[in-house]
From TrEMBL, chains A, B:
Transmembrane segments: none annotated. One of its GO terms (cellular component) is cytosol. InterPro entries: cNMP-bd_dom, cNMP-bd_dom_sf, Env_Response_Regulators, HTH_CRP, RmlC-like_jellyroll, Tscrpt_reg_HTH_Crp-type_CS, WH-like_DNA-bd_sf, WH_DNA-bd_sf. It comes from Gluconacetobacter aggeris. Keywords: DNA-binding, Transcription, Transcription regulation. This is Helix-turn-helix domain-containing protein. Residues 38-155 form the Cyclic nucleotide-binding domain.
DNA sequence: AAAAGGCATTGATTCAGATCAATTCAGCCC
DNA sequence: GGGCTGAATTGATCTGAATCAATGCCTTTT
């Protein structure tokens, strides 16, 4: 990983702030630089000590910055951009287990190996710090630990939903669920859903093939459920019917 | 839920102990009764206050004690027995998202609704306490919060493995993975794997049908990978080959 | 011991989605 | 604009697991 820069420590904030999901601007916990969004404010005397070991890293699109099975030495907080998390089988079959965006933490694990890989979708900025440091941070800031627990809980709920999808839903139900999930994730409240990922990523996330994803989207178009826009965008036309489909209410 | 009894508060321990995975005998955090296994010791002055609202509940086999979508009012710690966690679709399709045994916590959620249901497999004893109380406990005992985070992290890893299984593995690979997982879970180090759950549970856990599970086990028997014993037990005969199969190395 | 009920196994057939195989489309770079 | 390249769509065919359908096999009851 050659494309990393040291933290800009000149911009010292008065208060320590966690990058997070609540979408307020603020300063990164680990390096003190201004982040796109933060969620949690921590009163702080020890900011100088905290900023000591922080490193900001820039990751280019397509780059795998966490290798599945590698030694889990670092902890990451995404300050901008989005990444895909995945697991793979020896013969190349791949399962994307989730997407992570601004504010998410990566590398939370009890094991000493990363259980999944992580690859940048677009250009990603993240703060990286060592595991011993993370432990120390959690000792010093209980709110951080609480926040990690909340994030883990949410991810667990998402994972359970995904297990239901992968184990029991049909291709149509999977794609419908995916579109609605993407809509919820999008910052714009509109029904124009951005799909920045490739069909291949969608397929690997939904446990399908690219052909089935493509066919299913085409079917949704002819059924007037969605309209497929330019530039990786899908507009939801019949929200009700799509929700019914995603919930598995009727075939 | 009529089959619950109040906590036996007469057995006051000197120290507060968390029921957990490390398999040492000790006292339950919430009610102070002796539990089959505990993992974490917490020095304690406030034991009387802590035991105040604790309730021990006995759950009979087959009983659903957490209803998916119901108001998430309580938090549970299993002190003995094993339960299955599941999600369901309106038409009855079901996905078992995991099994929980002695020491596991249930009900961890940011949302105010349970994201999954929980049903007792055998007779289950558990300690139940309210969410506000749980919050208070976490405030008072940071080690509890740390333990919950560790448990959530482990579950997240397990969930990611299961997503790979459900999204990308074949029926044979799924059953092989399941047998090895059960072997790891079992307390006996032997290669005799106990399968207390029904074929239907296995199928709903692996995203298959009971017929496919049955056929796959029969195939494994004829291939001399396993020997099917009496009373819901399977003996692993060819460990190496089973591991290769589970890892998805060769078809 | 016979009857009954609930799993589990095995067989026959179907089908949703995978695989194999062309096109078609959208950027991009001269 | 005219190739060039990788992604997306569409079509034809195949197949692994689901579905439909009998038995078989324990456990409980009488």
């Amino acid at each position: 990983m050659s494309d990393q820069t040291t933290c800009r420590r000149d911009a010292r904030p008065r208060r320590l702030i966690l990058a997070g999901a609540h979408r307020q601007p603020g300063y990164c916990l680990t390096c003190g630089i201004r982040a796109q969004s933060v969620c949690s404010v921590i009163d702080d005397d020890d900011i100088a000590r905290l900023a000591e070991t922080a490193v900001e890293t820039l990751v280019l699109p397509g780059r795998t910055f966490i290798e599945e099975g590698a030694a889990a030495t670092d902890f990451y907080n995404i300050t901008s951009g989005s990444v895909k998390l995945f697991k793979a089988l020896p013969d190349g079959r791949r399962q994307i287990t989730g997407f992570a965006t601004t504010g998410h933490f990566l590398g939370l694990a009890v094991s000493d190996q990363y259980a999944f890989g992580a690859e940048a979708i677009d250009t990603v900025r993240l703060c990286r710090f060592s595991r011993p440091r993370m432990r120390q941070l959690m000792d010093d800031f209980p709110r951080l630990e609480r926040r990690l627990l909340a994030e883990a809980s949410n991810e667990l709920v998402a994972a359970q939903n995904q297990m239901l999808l992968l184990g029991r839903k049909t291709a149509r139900e999977r794609v419908a669920s995916f579109l609605l999930e993407r809509m919820r994730e999008a910052q714009d409240p509109a029904e124009d859903v951005p799909l920045p990922m490739t069909r291949s990523d969608m397929a690997d996330y939904l446990g399908l093939t690219i052909e089935t994803v493509s066919r299913t989207l085409s079917w949704m178009r002819t059924e007037r459920l969605v309209a497929i826009g330019k530039g990786h965008t899908v507009r939801i036309v019949a929200m009700e019917r799509l929700q019914t489909l995603a919930a598995g209410d009727a075939a």
